[in-house]
Design goal:
Elements: H1 2-15, H2 19-35, H3 47-50, H4 62-73
Length: 74
């Protein structure tokens, strides 16, 4: 609950700023966040385990299937 209360307090202070001041604050926060290196979350999907899983589901080559779908769309 402390976290929410703190954010609510900050939001009340932001509400007291003019629109231009709010935009400046937003730009500063955006710049700060972009300058930090954000750790990338590793995917939990094991793509190699999925290889060949759908083989035999369709009666045609996957590329032929995709080509046919594209032709039908046009």
């Amino acid at each position: 609950m402390k976290h929410t209360t703190r954010i609510e307090q900050i939001q009340k202070q932001i509400d007291q700023l003019s629109t231009s001041e709010q935009l400046e604050l937003l730009e500063r926060i955006t710049h700060r966040l972009r300058s930090r290196s954000i750790p990338t979350r590793q995917s939990s999907v094991k793509w190699k385990a999925l290889y060949g899983l759908m083989r035999g589901i369709w009666d045609e080559d996957a590329q032929e299937y995709v080509n046919r779908l594209r032709e039908e769309r046009d």
